[in-house]
Specification:
Catalytic activity: Catalyzes the rearrangement of -S-S- bonds in proteins
Family: Belongs to the protein disulfide isomerase family.
EC number: 5.3.4.1
Strand content: 15-25%
Low-confidence stretches: 1-29, 492-511
Number of helices: 17
Shape: globular
Protein name: Protein disulfide-isomerase
Number of strands: 20
Keywords: Disulfide bond, Endoplasmic reticulum, Glycoprotein, Isomerase, Redox-active center, Repeat, Signal
Strand order of the largest sheet: 1-3-2-4-5
């Protein structure tokens, strides 16, 4: 009887043991970190052992890094089961001992993610998603071959898309200089484009199907839909891809498939022509003429964008325009100058572009209205009054560039008021401010944060103010750098003559 009871309990015992072990393994899995932690001591040795590794440079206090962390860890756990396993790693770049690594890899913000290949000999930017499933798909794609072979119609269907750029090399054989150059370019540009190669052009959805190559066919979702190219020098191939992968006119709308082309438009070095209008009302009337002008001028270093009013409201705020001024065309050049034509009609486009190319247009300057009353101690300056109030006033002027939402600017405001009040009876000194978010700032000034403060002496010397933001420090700076009248200079000399030398030395020590 005892024997039968023992045997009958055996499956139950196995089940309980199995459950216990499963719980232990689950706890171990939950506690295990799949993201590899690196630092200056083990970075080089670890990277050198991997043909492919992804490294995040992060800072513990960074909000974007905190948001990425669980997604990055989840992706790492999934990729650890890949065949072969793919490794995600991280480096705390805020630690002093790791600053050298951050500098070596060009880390200028957090998080920065790099893909390292061939033991770290090749480094490229991670340009993929920031959520787990997207990270997994992107890393798997980049860990595979730079160019995939297209063998069947099914391969071509899954590889090509109506929504993205695809570059396919057609070759009689997968060897030789042309094929090697093609794969070298694919390796270099793989994070930006899809590459494939085939021996049978009949598999491709567009273009002449009887070609045997070698030839490069770029498939795209706009304009002529495909372009063929036969020069296999690597520089020529890269230029061909770059030139052919941008639309004649980039469309800026709510369609997410357009967004990569919009990003590329704003990142390219050309002058930028941007036509904004209401797509639902007048787009069809403008498209033919705008495309015609784009085709004529794109070879002259100008890129063209057509933006929907609904999507482009941020641009209107940036350029200081109003929605009721559409249709409007804007050209922004590399030196920051802007040219604007509001209430545009289709027949205006070509003549206006010609005037721009001929240098007959005056640059547009975003400016708040010049205030009718400017009686406060701190004078208000706008773009349209900057020359007269700051550069041509004949005064020593301290000018603050501020943003209305900036907390540091709000703290500084009452201090500047006190400084201005202390100079109310001095006709040679002016304290002023300009809203840098509502007015264009000329290239004379470098404003990369708020508040930024400049000082100009009567004689025209331009200085930045980087000292303490106290009334005493600001006044001392003004007095040190201002141009004084003869009377003020005589008074200062007389005062110095009456001051004992030991006190003068003490004052110099304090300065």
């Amino acid at each position: 009887m005892a024997s039968r009871v023992s045997l009958s309990l055996f499956p139950v015992v196995l089940c309980l043991v199995s459950l216990a072990l499963t719980g232990i393994y689950a706890q171990e899995s939950e506690s295990k970190e799949f993201v590899l932690t690196l630092d200056h001591s083990n970075f080089s040795d670890t990277v050198s052992k991997h043909d492919f590794i992804v490294v995040e440079f992060y800072a513990p206090w960074c909000g974007h890094c905190k948001k990425l962390a669980p997604e990055y860890e989840k992706a790492a756990s999934i990729l650890s089961s890949n065949d072969p396993p793919l490794v995600l790693a991280k480096v705390d770049a805020s630690e002093e001992v790791n600053r050298g690594l951050a500098s070596e890899y060009g880390v200028q913000g957090f998080p920065t993610i790099k893909i390292l290949r061939n033991g770290g000999k090749t480094v490229e930017e991670y340009k993929g998603p920031r959520e787990a499933d997207g990270i997994v798909a992107y890393v798997k794609k980049l860990s595979g071959p730079a160019s995939v072979e297209v063998k069947t119609v099914e391969d071509a269907s899954s590889f090509t898309s109506e929504k993205k750029i695809v570059i396919v090399g057609v070759f009689p054989k997968f060897s030789g200089e042309e094929f090697e150059n093609f794969t070298a370019v694919a390796e270099k540009l793989r994070s930006d484009y899809e590459f494939g190669h085939t021996m049978d052009a009949k598999l491709l959805p567009r273009g002449e199907s009887s070609v045997t190559g070698p030839i490069i066919r770029l498939l795209k979702p706009f304009d002529e839909l495909f372009v063929d190219f036969k020069d296999f020098h690597t520089d020529a191939v890269e230029k061909f891809i770059e030139d052919s992968s941008s639309p004649m006119v980039t469309e800026y709308s709510n369609d997410p498939s357009n967004h990569p082309f919009v990003v590329k438009f704003f990142n390219n070095p050309n002058a930028k022509a941007m036509l904004f209008l209401n797509f639902s009302e007048v787009a069809d009337a403008f498209r033919p003429k705008y495309h015609e002008v784009a085709e004529k001028y794109r070879s002259e270093g100008i890129s063209f964008l057509l933006g929907d009013l609904e999507t482009s409201k941020g641009a209107f705020q940036y350029f200081g325009l109003k929605e009721d001024q559409v249709p409007v065309i804007i050209i922004q050049t590399n030196d920051g100058k802007k040219y604007v034509k509001t209430y545009l009609k289709p027949e205006h486009i070509e003549d206006w572009m010609k005037e721009f190319k001929d240098g007959k247009l005056r640059p547009f300057i975003k400016s708040e209205p010049i205030p009718e009353q400017n009686n406060e101690p701190v004078k208000v300056v706008v773009a349209d009054s900057l020359q007269d109030v700051f550069f041509k006033s004949g005064k020593n002027v301290l000018l603050e560039f501020y943003a209305p939402w900036c907390g540091h600017c709000k703290q500084l405001a009452p201090i500047l008021d006190e400084v201005a009040v202390s100079y109310e009876n001095d006709p040679d000194v002016m304290i002023a401010k300009i809203d840098a978010t509502a007015n264009d700032i000329p290239s004379d000034f470098e404003v990369q944060g708020y508040p930024t403060i400049y000082f100009k002496s009567k004689s025209g010397d331009l200085l930045t103010y980087d000292e303490d933001r106290t009334k005493e420090s600001i006044v001392a700076f003004i007095e040190k750098n201002r141009d004084k009248t003869d009377k003020q200079a005589d008074e200062q000399t007389s005062k110095a003559a009456d001051t004992p030398s030991d006190k003068q030395d003490s004052a110099k020590d304090e300065l």
